[in-house]
Amino acid sequence: MSGRIIEFLRNKGNFISGEEISKSLGITRAGIWKKVEALRQRGYLIEAVPSKGYKLLNSPDIPTKEEIQAVFKGDIIGREVMFYEKTTSTNDKVMEIGADGLDGTVVISDSQKQGRGRFGRDWISPPGENLYFTVLLKPLFPPKEASIFTLMAAVALVSAIRGYAGLNAVIKWPNDILIRNKKVGGILTEMKSDMDRINFIAIGVGVNVNMSLSMLPRGVKSIATSLKKEKGKLVNRVELLGEILRNLEYWYKKVLAGKKKVLLGKWLYFDSTVGNKIKVKTQGGIISGIAEGISNEGGLNIRLFSGRIETVSAGEVTILKK
Ligand code: BTN
């Protein structure tokens, strides 16, 4: 109900009488007053004037369902949003709801108790500062093509950071988002599939938005950054998320329509890996060579020093000095 009141106040943009809200939403005027008080506790600035009614002056920068859907609600991405103040990991939530959830559902949490990165690392997830969310996707694709969705998320993230925050973010294959060579965001993709068909994919995204880097453990601090640090001022989480979701919707529709090549082109435009001398830590060991490009499935093509091209589908890249 609080959500409906906010939606109402937002749509109106001006004063709206208690009577009008009461009639439209079917609650008593005392009930409205209570809800308004609760909303104020959550950080909403709502003016109340006896003869005029209520007016929304400001919303808190908390990515709740109402706030997110006020800035973006796609045909697919974000048509369902689940917000938690705290959860273990948004990827865990999506893996739980997976089969029953709607394609494009966004699960977001203000903080995570067990935020996970790739290779079993922790993803530091304090409240009130950053973005932690997971998008549930159910493309009718074979599992070998799943990597394309990680690349898609990286493109959406970089486009949004460049467009909204005006910062020169780039991608390091497959899923690191860097600014000035420091990590500002990452993507953790998990999947449930049959032999020939994806059941669902969980695309988990973490972005260091306004976090102070002193919160990070030693060792991570020197290789990470945040949008606030790079921009020198706070970045609005809800609006940034709206941009990310808008981009995700755009690219998801393109990929579903068979326009994978267009996405790969955009990915290469944002990429900072290809053309460099690299080493990749894979499950099968370390591979060194020159990053030559990406395969149609989203793997990294590496020209080994023997001249042979090898494609890796997962791993951790280190860019070596030229
Ligand atoms: C990485 O770069 O290692 C991937 C980091 C992914 C972090 C996000 S935060 C939201 C989602 N939930 C998690 O537990 N992890 C991902």
Description:
This protein is an alpha+beta fold. 32% of the residues lie in helices and 28% in strands. It contains nine helices and 14 strands. α4 packs across α8, α6 crosses α8 and α6 crosses α9. The termini are far apart. The mean pLDDT is 94. The protein has a seven-stranded mixed beta sheet, sandwiched between helices. Strands 13-12-11-10-14 form a five-stranded antiparallel beta sheet, with no helix packed on it. Strands 1-2 form a two-stranded antiparallel ribbon. The structure holds biotin.
Percent helix, as a range, is 25-40%
Q: How are strands sequenced across the largest beta sheet? A: 3-4-5-9-8-7-6
| Class inferred from helices and paired strands | alpha+beta
How many E strands?
A: 14
The hetero compounds bound to this protein are:
biotin
Helices and strands in order:
Blueprint: H1 2-12, H2 18-25, H3 29-41, E1 45-49, E2 53-58, H4 65-71, E3 81-87, H5 90-97, E4 106-112, E5 131-137, H6 147-165, E6 170-172, E7 176-179, E8 182-193, E9 198-207, H7 227-231, H8 237-256, H9 260-270, E10 277-282, E11 285-294, E12 300-304, E13 309-312, E14 316-319
Parallel strand pairs: 3-4
Antiparallel strand pairs: 1-2, 4-5, 5-9, 6-7, 7-8, 8-9, 10-11, 10-14, 11-12, 12-13
This protein binds biotin (BTN).
Defining key terms:
14 strands, five-stranded antiparallel sheet, 322 residues, 28% strand, alpha+beta, seven-stranded mixed sheet, binds biotin, single chain, elongated
Give me a quick take on this structure.
This protein is α+β, with helices and mostly antiparallel strands and 322 residues long. The protein has helices at 2-12, 18-25, 29-41, 65-71, 90-97, 147-165, 227-231, 237-256, 260-270, and strands at 45-49, 53-58, 81-87, 106-112, 131-137, 170-172, 176-179, 182-193, 198-207, 277-282, 285-294, 300-304, 309-312, 316-319.
